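#lab-general

N.A. 3:47 PM
ok so I finally got the sequence cleaned up, no stray characters, all 144 residues accounted for. can someone with queue access submit it? mine expired

B.Y. 3:52 PM
send it over

N.A. 3:53 PM
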Amino acid sequence: MRSVLFLIVVFALMSSKIKAQDLDVYQWKNRIILLKSNTFESDWLQAQLKRLNADRTQLEEREVLLLIITDDLVYNDRKQIMDLSADTIISTYDLSDFNGLVLIGKDGGLKLKEAFIVNPKEIFSLIDSMPMRKTEITDSKGID
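B.Y. 4:20 PM
back already:
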């Protein structure tokens, strides 16, 4: 009986971990900009989103994934709910009392954490100064 109960508990824990993924699935593939706000309708969030979307080509060139995180949900920039754990992300990057922009590098490390509104040129400059991005730029010049 104990072993059956143990297996049920282990299965429940594993299935919740699978369902509530954190950002590890994007590591080494994407840089991530998290826009953290209490609600999706926040004026500050919408203003930041508008500025970033105006530079969509720059985001794509740098392989940036844009995510919006509220206190309980994670959305993509088209307001579609993502299968990611808001709690895990908030805990990992200490965002419980924070509203603003967070830049996470391809290595999963925190690169920038600032209150709204952050100038996109500042973000792109920071990304372009990173060693991995410099390598990407050099590699793309060699291909052309």
